[in-house]
Amino acid sequence: MSRIAYAAAMLMMVAGYAAADPVAAERLSEGRRIAETWCANCHLVGPAAPGPATDAAPPFHAIAAMPSTTAMSLRVFLSTPHSRMPDYRLTNDQIDAVSDWILSQGAR
Asked: 28-50: per-residue pLDDT in tens?
């Protein structure tokens, strides 16, 4: 699937999500904003996002596709300092929002 087609599919999914649950859609939007601000320097955070400066970190769609990736595993990972990742000290709400955004990237 081309990046443009994927981006269009993601926008339709988010729009449908917003109609079904506006609070969840707002959290997804916040997760995207946080990811574009803090994560995009190293990760490809979405289909329409500019690529990172390096390919050393996996794209969010690859993280979302891993069988071990769940909301809980992302929460634990993002709450724990890692030597290869900056420690942004995200709040619990921000972690939940970013986790939702990452998981949404696996819905193709």
From this structure: 999 999 999 999 989 999 988 87
Place of tokens 């269009």: 8
Q: Could you name the CATH architecture of 3-104?
A: Orthogonal Bundle (1.10)
Distance CA 20, CA 96 (A): 19
For the chain, how long is the longest CA-to-CA vector? Answer: 40
The DSSP secondary-structure symbol of 106 reads T
Residue 43 C-alpha from the chain's centroid: 9
User: What string of DSSP letters covers 33-82?
Assistant: HHIIIIITTTS--STTSPPPS-SSS--HHHHHHSTT--HHHHHHHHHS--
